[in-house]
């Protein structure tokens, strides 16, 4: 006898189907970060408000920021994506030896989705799949080869994509408060090309005098890992004020074996832990203001936070034995911890139209004064200020289309390098997002 499908079973099946489609679609995409190695926000609505989401959830993708937030949502599914156009430029050398080139890796599509379902009076469950961050550069002229006199027409660059899938649960403590947790399941893919200049900086070269096989030009490699995300959210004063806090653990990843001579700890590239707080306040029933402050601890991940080549001596901060590429204390990108400030507005102009605007600021994690520019030519995460706009059109109470635009203003960093020449990196970005929301 065939079992009759209940409304709960039907809704669960819909959520799982959407989750599967989004997960498969998102994995091949390449992401390009704007707050360091992370995006300024997840979901079209959040991105239209400067990335604000910790205490101001507006769609089911917000569960990827604060898992507690889905406890305040009605059943819904959101699917969307962003089209990114980053423009990076690097320069290395002085006078007649100066070589400057623009990155040609400048078009990326990044899908995302989320679903939320109220399981019972106390528990809500959900799922989100997001391109958490990453980066990419592709120079059709190799600036490093200009140092050694090698062929400058070789391609130089890296590609990193970080995809996260987050099964989520939220628990109702009382009328005002929810807590939540997500299992963060992560997939990374990475490849590098044109980094032969750094062969003499590797552990294997310093130990044996042989050139490394797992430094560059080895195609795509994959890493897998997991972490946890915890959150709290509360609504007070007749739901005019909302507060939230979230914490994401370090996401421990398997190692990139094809690039174990590049990253510290023999190919390790974990995703750093981060935490944040946020608030939202309804100035009027139709006008919402929100703000978030987040902190990312890049310094705790050695391949990201370890110092890169110094500007004096042999280039190693301590010694070749301790700081060779691939060693536990191997050279990194020298990124500092980053604090990001986000503020946004949402104005419900009519039952059909809502408009948004926001600002996002995070000081570049690259310290150009300490010689970090040389390594970061391939990872020019310099952008600091972002202006955002957004809108939602709801043709009926069940459906809505949302749109966002983000502009990351040009920012340039310049500093000394190991080779004695000045290095310079700059970037600015534009992105357009669209998403579809369906209320179950």
Q: Gist?
A:
This protein is mainly β.
User: What summary fits the major beta sheet?
Assistant: 14 strands, antiparallel, barrel
CATH architecture name? Beta Barrel
Structural class: mainly beta
CATH class: Mainly Beta
The share of residues in helices is 10-25%
The total beta strand count reads 16
How many H/I helices?
Answer: 8
Q: What is the CATH fold-level name?
A: Porin
Radius of gyration: 23 Å
Please tell me what the overall shape is.
Answer: elongated
**What spatial order of strands do you see in the largest sheet?**
1-3-4-5-6-7-8-10-11-12-13-14-15-16
> What is the count of structural domains?
1
**What separation lies between the terminal Cα atoms?**
28 Å
Relevant CATH superfamily = Outer membrane protein transport protein (OMPP1/FadL/TodX)
Poorly predicted tracts of residues: 1-6, 15-31
N-to-C SSE series? HHEEEEHEEHEEEHEEHHEEHEEE
> What is the percentage of strand-forming residues?
over 45%
- Whole-number mean pLDDT: 88
Question: What is the fold's blueprint, element by element?
Answer:
Blueprint: H1 7-26, H2 44-48, E1 76-92, E2 99-102, E3 108-118, E4 123-139, H3 145-148, E5 156-172, E6 177-193, H4 203-208, E7 221-236, E8 241-248, E9 252-253, H5 264-267, E10 274-284, E11 287-296, H6 302-305, H7 320-323, E12 338-348, E13 353-362, H8 373-376, E14 385-396, E15 399-416, E16 422-439
Antiparallel strand pairs: 1-2, 1-3, 1-16, 3-4, 4-5, 5-6, 6-7, 7-8, 7-9, 8-10, 10-11, 11-12, 12-13, 13-14, 14-15, 15-16
């Amino acid at each position: 006898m065939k079992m009759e499908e209940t409304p709960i079973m039907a809704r669960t099946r819909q959520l799982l189907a959407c989750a599967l489609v989004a997960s498969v679609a998102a994995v091949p995409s390449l992401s390009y970060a704007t707050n360091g190695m992370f995006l300024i926000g997840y979901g079209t609505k959040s991105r239209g408000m400067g990335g604000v989401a910790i205490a101001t959830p507006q769609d089911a993708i917000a569960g990827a920021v604060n898992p507690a937030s889905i406890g305040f949502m009605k059943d819904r599914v959101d699917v969307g994506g962003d089209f990114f156009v980053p423009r990076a430029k690097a320069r290395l050398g002085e006078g007649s030896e100066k070589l400057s080139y623009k990155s040609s890796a400048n078009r990326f599509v990044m899908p995302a989705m989320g679903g939320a379902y109220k399981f019972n009076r106390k528990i809500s469950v959900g799922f989100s799949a997001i391109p958490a961050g990453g980066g990419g550069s592709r120079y059709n002229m190799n600036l490093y080869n200009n140092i050694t006199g090698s062929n400058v027409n070789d391609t130089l660059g890296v590609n990193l994509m970080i995809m996260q899938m987050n099964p989520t649960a939220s628990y109702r403590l009382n009328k005002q408060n929810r807590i939540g947790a997500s299992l963060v399941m992560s997939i990374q893919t990475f490849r590098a090309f044109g980094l032969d200049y750094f062969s003499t900086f590797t552990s294997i070269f310093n130990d044996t005098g042989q050139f490394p096989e797992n430094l560059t030009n080895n195609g795509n490699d994959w890493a897998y890992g997991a972490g946890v995300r915890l959150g709290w959210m509360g609504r007070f004063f007749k739901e005019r004020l909302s507060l939230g806090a979230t914490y994401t653990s370090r996401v421990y990843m398997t190692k990139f074996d094809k690039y174990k001579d590049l990253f510290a700890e023999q190919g390790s590239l974990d995703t750093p832990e981060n935490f944040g707080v946020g608030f939202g306040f309804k100035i009027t029933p139709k006008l919402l203001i929100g703000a978030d402050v987040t902190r990312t601890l890049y310094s705790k991940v050695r391949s990201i936070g370890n110092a890169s080549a110094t500007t004096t001596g042999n280039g190693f901060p301590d010694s070749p034995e301790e700081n060779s590429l691939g060693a536990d204390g191997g050279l990194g990108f020298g990124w500092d911890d980053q604090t990001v400030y986000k503020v946004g507005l949402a104005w419900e102009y009519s039952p059909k139209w809502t408009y948004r605007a926001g600002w996002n600021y995070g000081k570049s994690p690259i310290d150009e004064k300490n010689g970090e520019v040389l390594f970061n030519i391939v990872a020019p995460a310099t952008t600091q200020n972002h202006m955002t706009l957004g809108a939602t059109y709801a043709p009926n109470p069940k459906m809505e289309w949302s749109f966002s635009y983000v502009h990351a203003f040009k920012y340039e960093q310049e500093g000394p390098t190991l080779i004695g020449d000045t290095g310079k990196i700059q970037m600015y970005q534009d992105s357009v997002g669209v998403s579809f929301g369906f209320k179950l």
